[in-house]
Amino acid sequence: MINKDRLLNEFIELVGVPCPSKDEKAEAELLVHKLQAMGLEVKVDDAGSKIGGTTGNVWAFLPGNVQGATRLFFEAHMDSVPPTTGTKVVRRDGVLYSDGTTTLGGDDKVGIAAALEAVRTVQEQNIPHGDIQLCFTIAEEIGCLGVVNLDPADIKADLGYCLDIGGAPGIVTNAAPRLFDIYFTVRGKSAHAGIEPEKGINAIMLAAKALAALPAYGRLDEETTLNVGQIEGGAATNIVAEQARFVIDMRCMDPEKLERLKDATISRIREVVEAGGGMLEVEPVEGSPAVHVAEDHAAVLLAKQAAGNLQLPFELTKTGGCSDGNFLCGYGLPCILLATGMSKVHTTEEYLRECDLYDCARWVTEIIRIAGQQ
Length: 374
Fold this sequence. Notes:
Shape: elongated
Order of helices and strands: HHEHEEEEHEHEEEHEEEHEEHEHEEH
Distance between the termini: 21 Å
Number of helices: 10
């Protein structure tokens, strides 16, 4: 059995520490202290120095006491979206809220707190287990920069679990899309808009025509999305715009299908821009690899068995979002997402049911226990 009072108090402590992206130093130092007190091997990597941050990812390792048992990896991120400083938790009718001036920070302190409590429970109750590795990353909220800049050679596990998605504990996400952000720069020709506009080539209008020429946007099909998320251009109202920029976010569960969509989108936009006398510069940036862990994979079956043992309603889902789990899969670690109960994240209305906090820790503990028997 987990210690509910300890878990609740630790969650409240964790969310009270300022932890904006790239400045998670206070949170990292607190976690290092806690992990060392638990007797784990702890290190902080150099990911922070690569992104101009104040700390790196925090790693911890507990050697197994069962030879040959499945080696497990649990991951959550330390940063929270603003406003995140000075979170004060309000308990009301079995639900945790902030006081309304900040986010709660359950995204992703519930994952961290659950992992810490699970490992403590395993230690205190002498539960047989394989190697357990924890990784608490930085800067997830601004592009998964912590996991992007970790050294994959540091991963010493057979299966991975990312504790960072909404929904009640028992829900497993085993599929997520590959992502591209494509940065387009349209170059036209400037001219005075009131005296000789005919001598100019309006980059804003060329960009608009090119975007209007796309066959579709939004949800293209059940596994593919395309979104024009940013656009800017021009220097002044009386100048024919010489330049315009826009960004397209596209995602698909099928990596090869996404590659074809990327190429077709760039080709169509270039055709329209050049037909209008403009020039186009394109920079495709791959945001994350796709996740697809089979329904009968050991990672899924282990989570399913643990949920069943705890009478948590198991459900297998996919998501259109991307997380650290995408990159962990890209590094070769089969990694699925475990729902933690977080709700209305990234808002000051964020909340977490206490029972979901407890069930998340119980679920992780049971996964460790079952794996130790295999």
